[in-house]
Structures are given as C-alpha cells and as structure tokens.
Queue: 2 jobs
Job 1
Amino acid sequence: MTTAPEKKPVQWDPTDIKAELLKKYPPKVARKRARQILINEALENDTPEILANVRTIPGIITMRGCTYAGCKGVILGPTRDIVNLVHGPIGCSFYAWLTRRNQTDAGEDGEQYMNYTFSTDMQDSDIIFGGEKKLEMAIQEAYDTFHPKAIAVFATCPVGLIGDDIHTVARKMKEKFGDCNVFAFSCEGYKGVSQSAGHHIANNQVFRHIVGTNDEPQEGEYRINLLGEYNIGGDGFEIDRIFKKCGITNVATFSGNSTYDQFATSHQADLNCVMCHRSINYVADMLETKFGIPWVKVNFIGAEATAKSLRKIAAYFGDQELIDRVEKVIEEEMPAVKAAQEDVLPRTSGKTAMIFVGGSRAHHYQELFKEMGMKTISAGYEFAHRDDYEGRHVLPKLKVDADSRNIEEIEVEPDETRYRPRKTPEELKALEEAGLKFKSYEGLLPDMEEGTLVIDDLNQYEAEKLVELMKPDIFCAGIKEKFSIQKLGIPMKQLHSYDSGGPYAGFKGAINFYNEIDRLVNSRVWSYMKAPWQENPQLSGAYVWE
Ligand code: CFM
C-alpha cells in the first residue's frame, strides 16, 4: 500500500475567492451573482440565505439544461413501457435517445422502448402550417407498431411558439384507441428557468393521468415507494437488491426502471421514501394529501446513509421482525464496505473535492467523500431551490415570481373512497418523538463546514476560476465541464452520468465509488499534461480590449 505524499495545503480565504470570482463582472451582474455565491456559516437559529431558482444572466455559459430536458429526459426518460414521443425538430429529439445513463431491465413482458427515439421530426412547413396533423399521424404509427399501454407527447420550444394544441390531439387519440392512455406535456424548453420546471410539469401529469388508476390489490409486505431515484448507472438495481434482502416491497420507483403499472398502483404503498428532494418532493405531498401516505427523506448514496435510511423505514413500520432483518442485512453488507474503506483511506484522506451537479447529488455525494476522509470545499446546485440549500423551513418564505407562476400547482384533495391515513396522529407523533422526521429535509448548508463556498448555478467561467484558485483534488460535474477541467490538470468525475461507471448507491455502490475516486485523485496524469502551444506558442495575440 502506498501512501499519498504530504500535500502542501493551498491557502485561501473564502472572502478573497468570492471577490476574485466576481471581479470580472459588470457591477449589475456582480451584484446578482454575489447573492448566489455564499460563504457557509453556522448561524444561531437559521441558515444563511442564498438566491436560487432564478434566471441565468444572458451571456453567461450556464451548466443548466432546459425545461424539456427535465420533463422528457429526467422524469419520463427512465419509464420503459411508455412510448415517449417528442413533438419537435430532430435536434431536440436526439437528446431523447437515452443520452442519460438510465438503466432498465425489459421485465417479463419485454415491453421496453427506452432505446428508441420517437419524434415527429418537424420541418419548416410544419412550423408554418402547424404540426397537429403530423403529431396525430405519429401517435397512430406508434400505436400500430407497438400497441403500448401509454403514449406520452412532449412539446419542444417551436410547438409552444406556433401554438399546436397537443393536449387536444392526445385526448382525441386516447378516445380513439380505448386501450392506450395518451397524454401530453407542455414542457417547452423556455417554460421555466431550468430543468426543475420540467420535473414539475412531468410529475403533475404523471400524477393526474396515471397514479391511482389501478386498484387491483398488490402483494408484498412493508410496501414503500421510492421517489426521486432514476437508476443512473444501475443505482436503482442496487437499492432494489437491498430492499429485497430486507423484505421491503418497493411498489414503484419514480421513475428509475419504472413501468406504467408501478405508477398506477403506487397509491397502495404505505410509505413514500424521497431520495431526490428537488425533483419530486411535491409528489410526496400530493400522495399524502390524496391517499394518506406519509413521507420521509432517505438517501442511499453512502454506506452509512444507506444503513440510516433502511433503519428509518424499519422504524416506520415498527415491526420487530423487519427491524431485526434490516440489522442483519447491514451487518452482512458492512464488512466488505469497511474493508474497501480501510484500503483507500490512507491514500484519500485529507483530499478535497468540489461538487456541482443538478439538485441533490451535490449534497448526497458529500457522504461518500466523508467516508473516504475527503472534504468538500465547494458545492452547489444547477437548479435547486432555496429549500434544497437551507431546508424546508424556508418554504413559506419563498416568493412566487413570474417564472414560478408559469408552472402549474395542482390542487389535490383527499380521495373520496381511497384516502386512508396509514398512521394515526398519535402514532405519527410517537414516531417523531423517537427521532423519525416526516416531511423534513434540512438541505445542504448545515452539512457543509464553515467557510466552504456554496454556489448556485455555477457557470463555466467561475468553475475554471474556482479550480485555478482552490486547486481541489477532484472536481465533480457533468460532460460540459469534463474536458475544460481536465485541461486545468485536475481529475474530473461526472456525477450525472458517472462516466461509464456505477452503481454508486447502496453498499456495493459505495465500494465502487471509493475505488474509482481513489484511482482518480491519485493519478498524476492530468497534472503532467501540457498542450504543445502552452509550451511553445507559435502565434501570440491579444484581445482588442486588453
Ligand atoms: Fe435529482 Fe437526479 Fe439530481 Fe435531477 Fe438531473 Fe440526474 Fe442531477 Mo443530472 S433528478 S436533481 S435533473 S438527483 S439528471 S438523476 S444527475 S442534474 S443532481
């Protein structure tokens, strides 16, 4: 075993770093960005306030995606037996072609459309004369070819601009077929400030058109739904393996490796476990209001976090048999985790990481880094809201602006026949008193050390500046950042797609992650790299404004 050489710590002061990041901006831009760059501090009764979920300043190269990406790609992308049809030009449709590494199994029925791209391939003439006829024909063709249970239609920007009525077309086709649910999403890319708006549009329609449509009793004890787990790199498979071993029945995952029937029967579960708070917390609320299912926050990223989440589920059901089985599973799984951890620790402890991902992972992955003795010195979300940073207690304080007003909030009432509180208020209270928190998420800030930098909607310029100034041992973000960071000599790990790795969830995932990060932070290759022109410039130039 080799140990890492003592590394000279890079001295930096967060206030200087922040000033340095803002220095190049015009005053107005700097003022806005200053509210999105936060130096973490522990306040007595509160968390510091950050500006989030606001428009990116035009001209800035954001890491964000669009509303269509959040709806079609994130939420509906991993549903295997729904035909997801993009109404729009083929450019947007290309990104429907499994570019996110959602995994699935084809199941016993073999219904699996995830690796197809369904598109209306809009042309100039469709933009001028309208695309509804073409959409109708495309839905018919998909139906004739596959006879799926459901067809979902997604609007891209031009569809909203020319005003195609996709909902009427969907309704008409649903009535015509009789045995295929057809519904549409007004998720034009410009609809919101980021993909977060797309999650909301997607989840609303899934709730409205599918959830609770199948009352056939389901088998299995200790029935839960796992909300906000998308099976990237097989994470969901690993979590399901653990559930199975514990005897917990996962009725529906929203939406990793999911099927139409899982959503349709999800109202029969007795507990909702929320993994990615950002993308789905409102669905948990709606399921509670309509059907009486309580929810708890869980996290299966990190071995300790996994154990803690399993114990939460067991405590909720309160059955000694389940509690014992969960303890036994943890006891069986942990030795391999500990062995891997002990192996990497001498080489990873004391190293530093930066994490800038969408809305949840920048928080969750800090668990894994902690288990490796590494510190996250800067982190942030692309598109999360203030509650994901500061905790849900800020929810009543959030102002509704023009952009959020654009996104429908559906009014949900208790179902007349099927609303059934799973626990009495006294039982819930007793569980709370025993430490099980319902509807609770504290956000990322309390889990980060004082003096760390938390940055919302980080952009290309700031990312490079940050790396240059703070020199982390690893930078985690997405494909758009990958190569620019590596060119700065710092290893880069994609935490959206996992590069080609994973799973990183659960116990086996933790082991995979330790080994992968150990390999990356101890590889010198990036720092040896110099492009030929950096050593021998053949041409030199200057900007006119310099
Ligand atoms: Fe939730 Fe996600 Fe994330 Fe997200 Fe995403 Fe993703 Fe993500 Mo990429 S649902 S917020 S919209 S945990 S695709 S699986 S990795 S940005 S941090």
Job 2
Amino acid sequence: MTSAQSATATIFARMKAGNDARRTSFGLAERRAALDRLADMVRRNETAIIAALRADLGRPEAEAVLMDYLNTLQEIRHARSHLHRWMKPRRVWPTLATLGASGRIEVQPRGTCLIIAPWNLPFHLALGPLASCLAAGNAAIVKPSELTPASSALIARMIAETFPPDLVAVVEGDKVVAEELLALPFDHIFFTGSPAVGRIVMAAAARTLASVTLELGGKSPVIVGPDADLKQAADWITFGKFLNAGQNCISPDHLYVHVSVKEGLVAALRNRIARAYGNGEASPHLTRIVSPGHAARLAALIADGLDKGARVLLSGGQDGQAVGPQLMEGITPDMRLAQEEIFGPILPIHSFDSIDSVIDAINAREKPLALYVFDRDAARIAEITRRTTSGAVGVNLTLVHYSQLNLPFGGVNGSGIGAAHGHAGFLAFSHERAVLRNRFLLLPILFPPYTPRVLRLIGLVKRFLG
Ligand code: NAD
C-alpha cells in the first residue's frame, strides 16, 4: 500500500467509525450549519472558481457563473430550506393485515459516501451532490476529475479549509485513485460520468453491495415537428447545444427535423449561431474543449462522417481545443457521429417525414437522459412523450429542466440509475427505514399451535383478505 493509499484508508476508516455518532449528533441544526458553511465557501471563492474554470476550460465568466456557481448555490439553498420537512418521519396508513400497528418511514443517513465527479461542470457536479449528501446527514469523500486540475485543486483546498476531514475529504487523482477508492466498503456511491465507467463503478459496488446513484450520459435527441415555432426552436437549440461547447450530459446530441421545416430551421440556426458566436472557434462566448484528446476525438468524428458521405452545413472551424459550432447532415448509422455520445459542438441534422421513424430510431437506442420536442401541436407532443422514454422531456426548451429542483434529475438504464437534485438528491443519500409499532395487533390469535379454532379463524381471514 502506498502512503497516499494508506492516508485515504485512514480518512475512510475515521468517517466510517463516525457513522453511529452522526446518526444522533448530525441533526437538523448541524446539517443546516454544514450547508451554510458550504454556501459561504462557494461565495467566498467565487473569483477563484471563475479563474479555475477559465484555466481548465476557457469558460466564459457568464457560463461559469450560470452553470457552476449559481447551480451549486441553488442546490444548497433548496436543501437548506426544505430540510426540516424532508427529515420528518412520515406516517403511513395501516393495511388490513396490520390493523392495530402504526407504521412510519424514518429517513436515515446512509453513512459514508463516495462522490466521483466528471470534468464538464467540475464544481457543480462535485459540490451539488455534496450538498445533498450533507443534507442527508452523511460523511463523504469527493473525487474530482483529473482532467480539470485547477478546479480539482481548488475544490481540495476549499473543502480542507471548511470541513473536518472526518466529515468531508477530497481525494484527487485519476482512474487509478478512483479504483482504489471503489475497493473501500462505502455505504453509497454517487457517480457522475460516462456510461462506460458507470458500468465499472456498478461492478465495483456489487463487491460490497454499496448502493449506487449513476448519473450518466448518452445521445439526447431533439425533435422539431412541422408546427414548431422555428425562431424559438433555433434560440433554444443553439443555447442547449453550444453552452459549454456542447459538453453537457443533457446537451441535444442530434436533431430530427420535419422535412417541411428543415430549410427554415437551418436558416434560423445559422442566424442564431452567427449572432451568439460570430467568430466561430475564436468566439469569446464559447467554452473550450477540455483536453487535446477530446478535441482530437471531435475532429475524428467529423472526419469519419465526411469520409462516409456526411455534409457540412455550417463549420465554425477548429483551432486546437477551440472548436466552433458545426452543423452536419447526411448522417448514416455506420458513422461514429450516429453511434457515440458527441459531447461537443457538433449537431447532426436528420430530416423526417413520419414521426414513427423518429420514434423507432429513438427506441432502438439506449434510453436517453433527455429528449426535447419543439412543436405547437399538443397531440404530437403527447404522442412522442407517450411512445418514448428518457430521464426527462423538455418541451419547447432545452437544458433548463436541470435547474428545476422540484423535479428529479436522472437517467434510465443506459443513461443512469437513480436521481439527483432537491428531494430526489436527499433521498439518494438516505435510507428510508420502515418502522412498525404494535399498538393492539390481533395477529397473536392466529399464532400456533394450529388448533381447529385457529384454523377456523385463518379460514375467516382468508375469506376476508383473499
Ligand atoms: P468519465 O466517466 O470519463 O469520468 C468521470 C469520473 O470517473 C472522473 O472523476 C474519472 O477520474 C473517474 N474514472 C475514470 N475512469 C474510471 C475507472 N476506470 N474507475 C473509476 N472511476 C473512473 O466521464 P467524463 O469524461 O469526466 O464526463 C463526461 C461523461 O459524463 C459524459 O458521458 C456525460 O454525459 C456524463 N455526465 C453525466 C451527467 C449527469 O448528471 N447525468 C453530468 C455530467 C456528465
């Protein structure tokens, strides 16, 4: 065991040893105080957070504030203000078989949790789950992504200054460190990242039977129907696809547009993109691609498409990690663009005649994290919604369901397991314990020995309940 490994094992052992004490000593007041400390920490470090995001991702200040800073503070504030209600035990109605007993659900902390975060919203996706985790009364080890080193170092420093290491600790590093952490018997693992690594995390959790929340990604489609407001669609698709240069789990991945409005939509998209990102790859309003490796991956996706017959409708250019908006058409199923999560500012456009073909194409893939529909025809929106499944549906908008904290946020199977945000996030880090208390249960009259009288009573009960 290396010294770093043994330091992590010591932190973990201390946290785990505190599980019992935290069940009683980490109550409403203490959890609120922890959330206040977390919010203060974020506010005090606003400038440093913006600078780290600029260093790691060239992220414009507006996007740093909107995505990482405000989303994190909103999650903390929401948890703090609802915590009293979320923590209260809930009484349940008796069933016929348990008449005479009172039942309630008590919400307990899971214990010691592991939060593994990705790089695309390095602060929000580490500290947002941490807010839910602390609200639920747990201790946590947080592992930020190694691909955003300035953000990772800042998270480590801020947390060390704010929390005792037996409550919250940050362990920095790459997949080797993540694998070492996954070998420890955590009570819950909250993972945000790719479906491929999600499988590795779930397999590791199976060894200790740790519960998991997997916030994954995938190919989220957007459908523009024949009755869509094209200006509205272009505004929201441009925002959704190119915010953070398309490096969001719920960015529209590809677009299906009804053949009758395709030309109009492409023209509206060109206008909107030109207005937002006039200089293409050189625009100061566009976030950079996180690493040379990911920039090369995007270039390879485009090259593969072009080789196999795809056409470029608009190219914002590429200069290393600066990649401008790209619109492409003529996409066929054998292209990587049609197969892999794009996670960058490339939007493949497919046109369709019949909505059945779009629904079939969506249902033939992994269930997406988000599905967006632009249309004014309520019946068509209802049909698409009814015949497909996804983590969430956005109607005449993109992305913003992420910030509606009264909605659960999560995927289905290939796009994730479990949910985050608000009450759903609190429950992800909680165990709902069933408590049933005997007041005047009549069941003992049916206890053995099974005399003729008891058997007659069982017969009666069977007639009544069977
Ligand atoms: P990733 O899966 O490569 O990495 C995520 C984290 O897992 C990092 O901290 C990384 O160090 C760690 N990791 C890497 N290999 C590992 C291994 N073998 N064992 C254990 N841990 C390992 O994902 P990424 O590239 O950082 O993020 C992009 C992906 O995340 C996309 O698929 C995106 O859709 C998804 N995502 C999902 C959400 C959501 O809320 N559902 C949010 C953001 C990103």
